[in-house]
Every structure is written in structure tokens, then in C-alpha cells.
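Researcher: Let's do a round of design. I'm pasting the C-alpha cells now; please hold your answer until I've finished.
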């Protein structure tokens, strides 16, 4: 799955849901190639009734294929601790080792954060537009590595749910290691930074 350059992300719709699930699809065939599932833990589920979801810790696990119960298909996970002002999100490989991390920018009009590898080298800067719907992955020299584009889901879904659809498109030169970090960053835009 990480050899792909384009991913269509479709969030599951649910009433009063306390955790999120995302289908990762091939944008050309609409075939499911992966699934991302938030598993924050029982205590965090309860606290979400009382505290803003963005302040609480969360964990999102990304699996290849359609089955999120098969641990052998785990590709990586995204984990954020308690947050007040500036969040740090760790990206772990399937063995639990940190392969990279994200750090939100303090002030940004449309949302922005930095993507680092395990050696603390900046891989990309993720910068949102003024409405926070479209994002660009930029390297240090401001060359575009990829984009995240929100896709219109229809008036009923947009007005009455918080479920989003979006496209992650990576530059053709992106390696599988970069693809993992950038896919994690793309999922983090919604799961970690935007969900309420």
C-alpha cells in the first residue's frame, strides 16, 4: 500500500461517535486498500463526553486491506498525548518504534505543522489554506511533496455530519518511507487536528 502515490480517505459517518474510522481507497477504482481506526481507550471514550476531543490523547492504527482486527496487517500508528497549546504526534511502525513525529505550528491561519523523521530531521512542512480545507506538503526549499484536498461529499453529509472525504496525492519521487510519514500527516490533519 505504501508504494501508492494517491489515497482517497473516506471517514465513516456515525451519530454521536466517540472514535473515528477511515477507509483508505484507491481513487481510480474505489477499491479499499487500507483502513485507519482510532482506538483511544475506554477512559478516553468516557472523558470525550466532558472534555474537547482535541485536548485528549488518541491513537490511530493504520492497516493494509479491509480488516482492522488482523494485527499482522498493521502498517503504522499515530499517537498523540494530552494537548493544551501545541501538540506533538508520534508515528510508530508496526513494532512500536518511532519512525517520525509531527509538531503543530503555534500560529497559523489555515493550520500548519512540521513533519520530522526518527532522527529529528524535518521532512516536510504541512501548510493549510485560509479555510483549512486544502494542505500542501512542502520540503525545506518549499518544493511541493504532495497535497491534501478536501472533497465535497454532498450537502446532506456536509451540513449534518462531521465526516470528511479527502484526497492525499504524493509527488512521484516520494519513497515508501516518506509516503508513510506523509500519509500519517494527511490522516493526522483530520484525526488529530480537525476532529471535534
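Researcher: That's everything. Go ahead.
Model: Designed sequence:
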Amino acid at each position: 500500500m505504501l508504494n501508492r502515490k494517491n489515497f482517497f480517505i473516506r471517514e465513516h459517518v456515525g451519530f454521536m461517535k466517540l472514535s473515528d474510522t477511515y477507509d483508505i481507497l484507491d481513487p481510480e477504482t474505489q477499491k479499499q486498500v487500507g483502513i485507519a481506526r482510532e482506538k483511544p481507550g475506554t477512559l478516553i471514550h468516557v472523558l470525550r463526553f466532558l472534555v474537547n476531543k482535541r485536548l485528549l490523547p488518541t491513537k490511530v492504527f493504520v492497516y493494509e486491506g479491509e480488516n482492522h482486527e488482523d494485527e499482522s496487517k498493521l502498517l503504522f500508528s499515530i499517537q498523540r498525548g494530552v494537548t493544551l497549546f501545541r501538540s506533538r504526534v508520534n508515528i510508530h511502525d508496526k513494532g512500536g518504534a518511532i519512525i517520525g513525529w509531527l509538531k503543530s505550528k503555534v500560529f497559523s491561519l489555515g493550520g500548519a505543522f512540521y513533519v520530522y523523521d526518527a532522527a529529528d530531521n524535518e521532512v516536510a512542512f504541512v501548510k493549510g489554506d485560509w479555510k483549512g480545507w486544502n494542505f500542501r506538503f512542502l520540503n525545506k526549499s518549499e518544493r511541493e511533496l504532495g497535497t491534501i484536498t478536501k472533497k465535497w461529499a454532498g450537502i446532506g453529509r456536509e451540513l449534518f455530519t462531521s465526516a470528511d472525504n479527502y484526497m492525499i496525492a504524493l509527488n512521484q519521487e516520494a519513497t515508501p518511507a516518506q509516503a508513510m510519514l506523509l500519509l500519517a500527516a494527511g490522516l493526522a490533519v483530520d484525526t488529530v487536528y480537525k476532529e471535534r
